[in-house]
Structures are given as structure tokens and as C-alpha cells.
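Exercise 7. Given the components listed, write out the predicted structure of the assembled complex. Treat all entries as one system.
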Amino acid sequence: MTAVENRPAAEIGQSRLRKEDAHLLIGRTTWTDNITLPGMLHLAILRSPMAHATITSIDVSAAKQRPGVVAVFTGQDFAETQGSIPCAWPVTPEMVNPGHPSLAVTQVNHVGEAVAVVVARDKYLAQDALEAIDIDYAPLPVVLDMEAALVADTTLVHGHTSSNRSFTWTFESGAAGTGAPIEDTLRDAEVTVRRRFIQQRLIPSFMEPRSTVVSPNGEGVTMWSATQVPHILRTMLALTLNIPEHKVRVIAPDVGGGFGGKLQVTPEEVICTLVARKLGKPVKYTESRSESLMSAHHGRDQIQDITITAKRDGTVTGLDVHLFADMGAYLRLVSPGIPVLGAFMYNSIYKFAGYRFVCEGVFTNKTPTDAYRGAGRPEATFAIERIMDALAGELDMDPMELRRKNWIKHEEFPFTTVCGLTYDSGNYEAATAKALELIGWDELRREQAERRARRDPVQLGLGISTFTEMCGLAPSRVLGSLDYGAGGWENASIRVLATGKVEVVTGASAHGQGHETAWSQIVADQLGVPFDDIEVIHGDTQSSPKGLDTYGSRSLVVGGIAVVKAADKVVEKARAIAAHMLEANPDDLEFAGGSFSVKGSPGSGKTIQEIAFAAFAAHDLPDGMEPSLDSDATFDPENFSFPHGTHLCAIDVDTETGRATIRKYACVDDIGEVINPLIADGQIHGGLAQGIAQALYEEAVYDADGNLTTGTFVDYLLPSASDLPSFLTGRTVSPSTTNPLGVKGVGEAGTIASTPAVVNAVVDALKPWGVQDVQMPCTPERIWRAVAEGVGGAATADRSAEGTVAYGGASTASSDGSGEGEQL
Amino acid sequence: MIPASFEYERPANLDAAVRVLQDGGEDAKVLAGGQSLLPVLRLRLSYPELLVDLGGLAELRGIREDGDAIVIGSMTTHDEVLKSELVRQHAPLLAQATATVGDRQVRHLGTFGGSLSHADPAGDLPTIALTLDAQLHATGPGGPRVIPASEFFLDYLTTALRPGEILTAIRIPKLGAGWSTHYEKFDRVAQAWSIVGVAAAVRRSNGSIAEARVGLTNMGTTPLRASLVEDELSGAAASAATVASASRSVTEGTHAPNDLAGHADYRNHLAQVLTRRAVLAAAGI
Ligand SMILES: Cc1cc2nc3c(=O)[nH]c(=O)nc-3n(C[C@H](O)[C@H](O)[C@H](O)COP(=O)(O)OP(=O)(O)OC[C@H]3O[C@@H](n4cnc5c(N)ncnc54)[C@H](O)[C@@H]3O)c2cc1C
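Answer.
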């Protein structure tokens, strides 16, 4: 990494403890729910118990009489003012967006949709008054199954549209000129394997529930919200509610995780704003966990029909992807873009000649879907890594051998894929070799053979995921070409104070990632100031006015580079001042360890702190130079970054009970240069937990009436540390060539890579039974059924009784589900 | 979520508690550790007007030896049960099952008596009480009485406790020499309810199984004893084959639930596998 070489005691690369943690650990936090303003009122939201119904009457008069109630509003009260929850990613010009009221006006389209809001003096009174609201619903038939939803003359989720299809988005390599026509590769295939994979619906399950405080002030508002995206929220709120943007201030105080779930402009945020402005009082709304599970947006929920073609020698030739993506009842901020983000990743690290991707976005009467950690890319990685295993099975080839044969060799970088993306760097051979060694692959294969031979009831399965992802969202021009509503740049500014202390303002709004530490490490090296002399400021549109926030593994790769650029400008100006002070030519100065000195005479120099004071005093600056050492930089990447890695999973499958227990999990990730190994490992570990959770545990289930039956954490199963193995992690470093730090991003890698490694391992364990697939999550019951069904069994048995109507968020026939919600 | 409002009393002794509870009538409920009751209130599945907190009744806490039994106060927490030498010595099955209940926080607040009174068929401890032939002591407006565990669990979340009655203590006969036990709990994550659980207590003598008891969690609306398996095992040879064969009868008389955590046929299968494993482990085969 040239930018920081030769520096004494480099901060970059140190496992610094996170400076933002102390206040969290001792409870001195400012979660939004901790904020109290004078005269603040509390909101409680009544939510629809019906998945699809017309509201025939609402009577709020009794609720208004309840103690402490200040006001009660329904959708009718805001019908003219609430606008529509914005969708910033119209993926095609024809895309149908039916509009998304924050408070339902005449019709409800999913269980959990907001229908009325009580404003009261405290939250308890507000909650009590909800029960006094009287609503009559006229039920409509419920649309749950995506394929059934697309049949002609079926029930429409939105009566004013002509179909439940929101969009069809297509990419085809022949038409795009990036590869062969897909029809040719399909026609000429020597071997063709088709599979249908189900990406079950997931719930992001951030630790801090969503919470919003809004204080009206004059024409505008100040909003505190548990959001990942204060800047986007500000702009979108202004547009949605017709408030001049400069009158809107959004603050994201301490935010307890998001995973994409807080990359949103939520109905609750809009409702708080409407109510605060109507009453002229500050208001607060904090959701309960149950509300969060049913009304915060969900993730995944796709049906993936995948066809891969190959030559008999194992050379892959074509990949044909057809997706049904469940949008849920409405389009939210980037709902349609999520599956489309995966479009360029299905081909992954392999050299395909032809490629096609078709995605149909479908409306159903379920909670809207949107970003969830990985957003489109985990789905893509899952499909390709699963079908590579299926192809290996078909060819009777070792699955790693098949991958080796087809992946891009390290000497072939930069490599332009069949999608037209250029991967700048990588070394799949190196990461794989290291991962195989880390887990002890050959020994495990021997053990597997031995256990198969003696028909051990506990079988060993070995799974592979050699993945890549596109991170660093995103080059603005590329986003423009994909019809995204904004750019992908990031901003940073640096203020060097009179005493030489440094403030770094970043537009990447952290919510648990560790930006304050990492950015301090970067600036410490760039400016040669002590780590502790740096303060990182973020998360308030007033103090960090420019930015596009944190998601898509973009913060370091885009925001961190903006910081470097801003620091470069500081150094440049400091050099001119130093030259003036030292009466030397700027070109004769060298900058190291925070001080400028004349080349060849070290020790003669001026420290950055001395220069900072000189810039502040401004007594003797070069002619025409503005006082201050401050700088501002905006970085727009020219390309994505492409972290990659090899994840390997060894799983014990008890074929009698169906329980799968991960025995060993090893991953070697190539995330380019690493700023803070501790933070990188933390991101990997958390990411693995979430990816493994999709493979084995999590699933949002709806019953045939559209009720979310996994409505509490008793039924929506999240693993904890006790359910996960101790991860074996390693790294290889192929620096990114498209940014000066050589970094690639790490926020989503674990989640994207791990899911197929685990499922491949489960299926591998069941190979003696001829099992070809186990639907996620691979519950003990599904695995047991797979074993029982034997050869060819796809074990799609879902967690539902008879009457199943939908994949991915499968349904049960009725909501009797004895015990559910009561086993507490 | 926020419960509906309720009154709260914390009586200082058992007599007062019985009185307050009686005065509260139908709308009063006992509060023990709150680990089951509070979630029910917060989800607004129940609207009691008065909660009578037993937390102040020292007389309902603690574990003592009483001849051929140990007596556990109903308000003894799971954690106290776990740490008790008496339990470990005379009712290790209870210790083993209690260790699987919830997480550390739950075990520090939840009580043995609360768990039995709540009578969730997915709860582990009712099965243990049933398997160990516990005697449940209760006091109410009609005075104290003793209910055998076999008559205590009537239905889903329903016990033989009468309105106004408080469970005060659980008397567990000591398992004599030759007995050994095992609890086999099957759940999907470490901190979760049993999909199925099987408790086994076995007395071995000279290469055969002299006596066996098998209790089932979540195979019906109450905890159950698998009496057919018990009969088949009693006097049988202590071999893997006999145990496997007897275990197949375990589903006789059960009504496994069909819910998100598992279909009934899967639970029936699990019960057989877990019974075999529990008995083998208990018998040391
Ligand atoms: C996260 C979590 C995980 C859990 N996991 C498990 C598990 O894996 N296995 C398991 O078995 N349990 C589990 N539990 C439940 C736990 O065991 C509870 O402690 C127990 O079910 C209730 O005990 P309690 O003291 O909290 O009773 P409370 O919640 O206070 O009361 C429960 C019910 O019993 C009544 N009651 C309580 N005490 C008496 C009494 N002395 N006399 C008369 N009525 C009484 C109350 O009125 C109420 O109806 C879990 C609980 C939680 C929160």
C-alpha cells in the first residue's frame, strides 16, 4: 500500500480496540428511544390484522376519550398530505409502482400495515387507547404465491393495477454484447442442469428496534431516527412531504444495527413527521419487537430457476437465471433494485460464454421486501454455488475440481465478465489453497469416506463456496445506467483545529461498524497525528451535511477513500505553508511521521501541529492563501470492488433426527488491504452468523390468511453464539487496484459466502441417500424427510401443514399453530 | 410491547398471599418469576387486574431433605435448583433438565413452581416432575392439600390447582440405589423450547432393567408417561436391541402437536429415537 509505506508505527493494520464502544458498554447511549424533549407526545400505531381488506369504517371516537389521549388520526386525515413512501429505484421505465401510503386510507394490503395512530401523553396510555379504535374490514382474497399471482385474471393486490407484476428486468449477454447469445449456449450444451432454489423470506432482526423522534420547528422539522441513511432520509422526506430540504435536519444518534433493515424511508418516520407538524409538538414512536417483525421490511424471498450448461469435460458454457422476486405489498426505497443487484453476480468467479438474467418483481399481500445484508448478492452466490455442486454431481466430478477448472486464474486479472463487469484483482487459487489447509480438507474427506462406509448414523458433509461479490456501491455512472435515483459517491471533510487536533466529518453514517476507529486510523497515518487526536463526526445532516450513508459494503471503499482524498488536500496545503515557514521549495520537502522537513536534513522540519497553528493564526501565510487547513473531498469510485474468498463447511448430520451441526467452518477472505483486523474479523464473524442462519434457522412463515406466524423470536429462530462453531478465519490480500488504500469492503462477505457452503455441506452429507437438495432453512425435519424420501428427494417439505400456497415465506393452512406465541 | 394496566400486591407471608389472591377473585393471578406470565401480558393474551407477587415469601424458597424425599419450595429459582447439592445427589434428572431451560437470565428469575403451574406442554420441568413421581403441595382458601404429579397436569396450560390456590412446594422422592437417569431434549437452537423431550429413569439389576420410567415433553397437551415402553422395559434384558424395540411403542397414547416447530409425524419419529437414546444413556448401555 504505497500511500502509507515508510511511516513509523503505522496505524493502518493495527487491531485497535474500537473507540466508539466505551459509551455503549457502560450504557451511556443515545438510542433514539432515550431521547426526551420537553412536551413530547407518544405515538402508538394500530396495525392491520388483515392481509387484504377494504376498510369499510373506522371509529376513533372512543379512543379519543381515553385518558391521556391527545389525538387519534387515520389515513383519511392524511390522505392529501402523506404522499407515497418513495421508491428510488424504478428498475425499468414500465415498472408499476402502485403507491405506498404511510397510513392505509381505504385498503390494507398486508398484516401489520399501519391504519391509525394514537397520540397520548405517555406510551402506555397510547398503547391502551389502541384497543378502543373500532375498524370494520371487508376481507379480500389473499395473494401469497408469486407464481399464482402472475396468472391472468387472478386477484390483484392493488385493484387499480392490471397485474401483480411490477416489472420484468432482463439482461442477456448476446444483446448486451458482453458474451455469446444465451440461446446459442443452451442449444449447443453437452450437459444441462436445471434447479429451482427457494430463497426463503428473512427478517433483518437488527438489535435496536426502530424508533423516531420528530420535533417541528417553524417550517421544518428535526428528526432523530434509528436509520442507516440520514442523508437519504432527509432528501426523501423533503420530497415526500413537500418540506423544503434545507428545513429538514435528520440525526441518526447511536443506531443499534441495521443490516439493510434501516436503509429505508419508513411509514413510521413519515407518520411521526405528519403528526408532529399537525400538532406542533415533538413526538416519539418506538416499535415493539412484534411490530418490528411484521412491519419493518423483510429480505430475500425469491424463487430462482437456474439452468447451467457445460461441456462434458466440465467447462461451463452458459447460465440462465429466471427469478421471481416477492416485493410484498408495496415498493419501498430500493425494493425492485435488490434482486437486480444480483444480476451481475450469478456468473460469480466463473468464465461463462453466455448469460441471461430475467427477474420478475411480483406483488403479494405480505410485508414489503427490501435490502437485507448482501441484498441480491447472497441470492446470486447461493444459486451459482449450489448449481456448481449440482453440475459436479451430474458430471461425477469433484466439486472443487469443477470450480478450479472454471474460475478466473489469478494471472487473468483484470478480467471482464460475461456481465461486462471488470474484476480488478483476485487470487482464487491462493484463497482456496489456504482455506483447504485451514480446515484440514483432505483429512475430513477421508473421515467422510470412512463414516459412509460404516453407515454411521451421523454423516459428515463437506460444503464449498468460492464466492465473489461486488462492493463499494457504487460508481454513480453505473447507478445511473441502472436507473437508480441517486449517485454512489461519498464525502469527507477534515478540519485541523488550532491545537493540531483533527475533526473528520464523514457522510458514511455508522451504526455499529466501527467507522470512528477505522477512519481515525486512516487519518492518523495520512496526517501523522496521534490516533487519539482525531474525532470522527457523522450521522447528523447538520454537522455532516453531505453523504450517501452506509450500506452495500461501501463505507470504507468509498467513504474511506473520500477521507484519504480530503487528507491529501490537507497535506498539500500544509506543504505550501511549511515551505513558506522553512523558506524552502515545496518540492524539496518530504512529509513523514507528521512533519515536513527538507529532504536530506531530517529534524529541521515543522510538525503538522505547528503548521496547523500557523494556519490558524494566519500571521504569516503565503500571499493569497486562505487561513485554515480544512479540506473537503468527494469520491466517486470508477469501479466496484470485488472481495472474494473460499468458505468451507464441515457439518455433522444426524440422519436419525435430521439435526445438522456445524463442526468446522473455515473461511479465507480476500478483502484487499485491511485497516483494522479486529473490525474485519468482527464483520466476518457476524456475517457468517447471519448467512448460516439463513441456511439452518431463519424463515418468515405466513399462513394461508397472510398472517405472519413467525411473529416473535420464539418462532422466528435466530441462532446465538452457543449455536455456532468457533470460526477459522484467514486472509489473502489482493489489493484493489481502483482505490488508493487497496481496500475492497468486508461488511457483507460473511453473509454472502456462507449460506451455500452450509447447504452444500448438508446435501453432501446426504449424498448416499441420493438427496439433491434440501430447502432452506435446512431444519432437522426437512433433513429427516430428505433422508426418508431418499433418492432424488428434494425435501421441499416446508414447515407448513397441508394447503401450502407459497414458497419463500411458506404458508400454513391455518393459523391454529398451537403453542405459537404462547410458549413463553 | 406494553401490558394493559394491573394492580400489584406483594404479600409478606403465605396466609396474606392466599387472602389477597382470594379477594382478587377471578381477575387475580400469581406472579412468580414472571418469565412466562410477563410475555403473555405483554402480548396482551391475558388481562389480569391484580398480580400477586410471591417474591416476598421466604417460606416458599429453598431446598431441604425430608427423609426419603427432597422438598423444593415453589419459588426456588432454576438457578438455585441447579446449584443444589441435594438435587444433584437425589434428583440429577431435574438438574440436567433445568440446565436446558432458557438462558442464564431466565434461570435466575424463573421458578420451579412457576414452571409447573404454567404447565406448558413444551416445558421441560413438568415432564421431570411427572417422571420422578413428585408430590405437589398447594394451599388455598380450602387449606393445604397434596396433588400427585400424575393428577396435576390436566390440559394445555391447565393444572389441577383450584382458583385461589398457590403451589407451595414440590416433594420429590429420592431415587434409591441402582437408579440412573437421563434427559434427552431436542430443540433447534441452544436456547429454545423442546420440540420433543424424553426423560428416562432406569433401575438396573444384573444385566437387566428392573424398572424404567419414561416421561415425554411436548407429545400432547400435557407431559406424558410412556407406560407401554415402561412396561416393555421392566424386566427386559439391558441390551440396545430390547431398548430400541421397546422405544417404538412410545407414541402409543400420545397426540403430538402439529406446529411450526414440527409436524406430528416428525415428532412421533423423534420421540422414538430420543426414547431409545435416553434409555440407553440412563442405563449406561
Ligand atoms: C426466553 C425463555 C426461554 C425459556 N425456555 C424454557 C425452556 O427451554 N424450558 C422450559 O421448561 N421453560 C422455559 N422457559 C420458561 C421458564 O421455565 C419459566 O420460568 C417458567 O415457565 C415459569 O416460571 P416463572 O417462575 O417465571 O412463572 P411466572 O411466569 O411468574 O408464572 C407462570 C404461570 O404460573 C402461575 N404461577 C407461578 N407460580 C405459581 C405458584 N407458586 N402457584 C400457583 N400459580 C403459580 C402464574 O400465575 C402464571 O400463570 C423459558 C422462558 C423464557 C423467557
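Discussion: The pocket of flavin-adenine dinucleotide is lined by residues A 824; B 29-37, 54, 74, 100-102, 106, 110-111, 113-115, 117-118, 123-125, 161, 166-167, 193 (CB under 6 Å). Chain A touches chain B through 41 residues (CB under 8 Å).
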